Amino acid sequence: MARVVTLFSRTRRAATAAVIVVSALSVLTGCAGDSQSDDTIRFALDWTPNTNHTGLFVAQQEGWFEDAGLDVQVLPYNDTSPDTLVDAGNAEFGVSFQSSATFSKAAGAQTTSVMAPLQHWATGIAVKADRADITRPRDLDGKIYAGFADPDGEETLKQIIRNDGGKGEFTTVTLGTSAYEAVYSGTADFTVSFFGWEGIEAEHRGTPMRYFHYTDFGFPDAYALVIEGNEQWMADHPEQARKFVQALQRGYQFAADRPDEAAQMLIDANPGAFTDESLVRESQQMLSSEYMKDASGKVGTQTAEQWAGYSGFLFQHGLLTGPDGAPLTTEPDWSTYFTNEYLAQP
Questions:
Q1: DSSP string covering 94-151, please?
Q2: Where does the pLDDT of residue 35 fall: very low under 50, low under 70, confident under 90, or very high at 90 and above?
Q3: 98-106 and 304-316 are packed helices; what angle lies between their axes, rounded to 10 degrees?
Q4: 50 Cβ partners below 8 Å, 6+ apart?
Q5: What confidence tens digit (pLDDT) does each residue in 83-138 have?
Q6: Model confidence over 97-112: pLDDT tens digits?
Q7: Where are the beta strands (DSSP E) in the chain?
């Protein structure tokens, strides 16, 4: 399946130094030819390092993977999605999102979500705060949406507008990462923004924005970030899988509990990657305080109810296709899309 670009995955982090991508790609190339032990785990990133990855770099910096006897190799972002890399066995684990994980697995990917570092939507509809004509989603009828060609994006927005009493009728222009500038300049009326990065960037540049949160308008919640594992590898290596997931969970829990320290570890692990380190710290503070912990204060757990909510929406609106490319006619068993069995037990 072509790389699925989701509402979350295209929250393009501030342009990280190209040298990171180049050097990381060389690591990826080098890894491909290496013989691999059972204790080597390749972890695929979805984008250049950012606060979605803080838990990984905390665990790495603290030596928790090494303590578990694991050699964790971080595969950098490239044109192949982590969903595809993990499904193909070219990575054991990788970063994904409930949306893209659902599309991928429905299409036949042999992957399972093993952890949800972000428990809720961390994206919302964004308009300039000085737009007096747009005060709620139903005001978006007839407006211009600066979009990203997401397979689920338009249907999601239409439903939220309808839930607010509108028709869900708007014009879409696909602009990718230029979408934010289009809204800032007024050439488009609204887009979808990641609160913990683009939202903070907008504040730093003096462009106040107004946001409409999906769940405020009756739309089901979703995990904004999940970690996927290759099913066959996990079945063949249950102890290594458990050790890795629990070390990674420990890293994300640390980030949730101690955001300032975790943000500094992310910065230290990626020297030169961030042109605005205050943005990194503010982002981590926001994610830690609002999005990472479940009701018990724990990071990582997933529920069938949350998977059934948003992923069920994708099925009910005919957006999911099976391995043959035909629309699914039977709703999947969402309990097979995730597992909590590798997480640390309370």
A1: EEE-HHHHHHHHHTT--EEEEEEEE-S--EEEEEETT-TT-SSGGGGTT-EEEE---T
A2: low
A3: 60
A4: 13, 16, 197, 266, 280, 283
A5: 999 999 999 999 999 999 999 999 999 999 999 999 999 999 999 999 999 999 99
A6: 999 999 999 999 999 9
A7: 40-44, 71-75, 93-96, 111-118, 123-128, 144-147, 171-174, 191-194, 209-212, 225-230
